[in-house]
Design a protein that fits this description.
66% helix
Length: 53
């Protein structure tokens, strides 16, 4: 636990949680495009390289 202003990782986690919630609640919103971008970046990090698409 920590104060959100002093822990950048907490703010990032909160942003991804909000994006995930928005995407799954309303898949046809602007969140869909942002979710696809984030998903590609997360997948690239997990696989150790870049993916095309």
């Amino acid at each position: 636990m920590g104060r959100q202003e002093s822990v950048p990782g907490l703010r990032l986690a909160d942003a991804f949680a909000g994006l995930s919630r928005a995407y799954y609640d309303e898949p046809d919103s602007k969140a869909k495009e942002l979710w696809q971008i984030a998903n590609k970046k997360i997948t690239a990090q997990l696989l150790g390289g870049q993916i095309s698409g």
